[in-house]
């Protein structure tokens, strides 16, 4: 289990993809999955970012689109595989605002996903954005989202073997 965070366009997704491909080759894994958490046709900028991400991946990737129930979808994946989840930032937003779910729901889904991954011997790389390093926004909805995302990050990092932060393309290993 690996957690990678960083600012927007910091290089975190590229690092995650490189790590996943290396693990896939070294472990002779059964499959290489990319779980995309973004909802399709969100807006023009997001659609462009989706296209860039898709173009950067080789044909060995199997894309799974899941904006909400990442813990359920992992049940469909092959055992002994590699899974990259990109990203927890968008997923947390989807769960919080689309379902009006509480922090406990998000944490439970992450814990369920990690347990299923362990049971099925699936290596997981989580990607997420650093949002708590910006100037605080006084909007209560934004604050709830940032606090929820940070709680999800803490949960994931606790469950992961490694944690990295990417700044300007340079990974820093924290755990």
TrEMBL record:
Gene3D superfamilies, per database record: P-loop containing nucleotide triphosphate hydrolases
CDD domains: CobU
Keywords for this protein: ATP-binding, Cobalamin biosynthesis, GTP-binding, Kinase, Nucleotide-binding, Nucleotidyltransferase, Transferase
GO biological process: cobalamin biosynthetic process
Catalytic site: 53
Reaction(s) catalysed (UniProt annotation): adenosylcob(III)inamide + ATP = adenosylcob(III)inamide phosphate + ADP + H(+); adenosylcob(III)inamide phosphate + GTP + H(+) = adenosylcob(III)inamide-GDP + diphosphate; adenosylcob(III)inamide + GTP = adenosylcob(III)inamide phosphate + GDP + H(+)
EC number: 2.7.1.156, 2.7.7.62
Annotated GO MF terms: adenosylcobinamide kinase activity; ATP binding; cobinamide phosphate guanylyltransferase activity; GTP binding
Residues at which GTP binds: 6-13, 65, 86
Pathway the protein acts in: Cofactor biosynthesis; adenosylcobalamin biosynthesis; adenosylcobalamin from cob(II)yrinate a,c-diamide: step 6/7; Cofactor biosynthesis; adenosylcobalamin biosynthesis; adenosylcobalamin from cob(II)yrinate a,c-diamide: step 5/7
Primary role: Catalyzes ATP-dependent phosphorylation of adenosylcobinamide and addition of GMP to adenosylcobinamide phosphate.
Family: Belongs to the CobU/CobP family.
PANTHER family: BIFUNCTIONAL ADENOSYLCOBALAMIN BIOSYNTHESIS PROTEIN COBU, PTHR34848
Name of the featured protein: Adenosylcobinamide kinase
């Amino acid at each position: 289990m690996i957690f990678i965070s960083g600012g927007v366009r910091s290089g975190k997704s590229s690092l995650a993809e490189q790590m996943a491909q290396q693990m896939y080759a070294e472990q002779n894994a059964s499959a290489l999955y990319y779980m995309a958490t973004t909802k399709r046709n969100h807006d023009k900028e997001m659609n462009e970012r989706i296209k860039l991400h898709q173009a950067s991946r080789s044909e060995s990737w199997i894309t799974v689109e899941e904006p909400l129930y990442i813990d359920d979808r992992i049940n469909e994946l092959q055992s002994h595989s590699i899974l990259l989840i990109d990203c927890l930032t968008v997923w947390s937003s989807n769960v919080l605002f689309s379902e009006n779910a509480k922090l406990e729901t998000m944490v439970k889904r992450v814990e369920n996903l990690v347990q299923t991954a362990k049971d099925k011997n699936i290596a997981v790389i989580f990607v997420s954005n650093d949002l708590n390093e910006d100037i605080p926004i006084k909007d209560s909805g934004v604050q709830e989202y940032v606090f929820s995302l940070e709680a999800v990050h803490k949960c994931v990092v606790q469950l992961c073997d490694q944690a990295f932060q990417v700044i300007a393309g340079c990974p820093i290993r924290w755990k």
